[in-house]
Amino acid sequence: MKKLYxxxxxxxxxxxxxxxxxxxxxxxxxxSPEGGFQGxxxxxxxxxxxxxxxxxxxERAREVWSRFHTDVHDLxxxxxxxxxxxxxxxxxxxxxxxxxLSKEKELSALREKLMERRAxxxxxxxxxxxxxxxxxxxxxxRGRGMSGMGRGRGMM
Length: 156
Fold this sequence. Notes:
The radius of gyration is 22 Å and the shape is flat. The chain is built from 6 helices and no strands. By secondary structure, the chain is mostly helical. It starts with a helix and ends in a 20-residue tail after the last helix. Residues 25-43 and 146-156 have low confidence and may be disordered.
């Protein structure tokens, strides 16, 4: 009986330990209510500091990206729905090639709209920066959320 309790206790401790280590530990991390650069709620994001953005620039940048995320919410949802539909059609042996191609064209059109909207937001965000800050972009690490962990030089 003592062995059973010891095993159960070990399992509970492992489960709790895993949950604690898997949880975000601070602002700006995935899952955090404050969100970081992607969520636009954190005013202490290192990306802002590296570019030397003024408070007004930070606020305007947050507005641009907040508006972008609001604008593309339905588009992303539609894209997710089309991916699920495509997966279901692709795994159905009765689906013909024309149907699959048609659904792929719909997916491509949604992806293109999302990319265009992102490009517009990037240009709007870029217009907030000074010429010196724009030059600093080339030295910034690339990657998701502009914090790419040394994946190369430049923003694009």
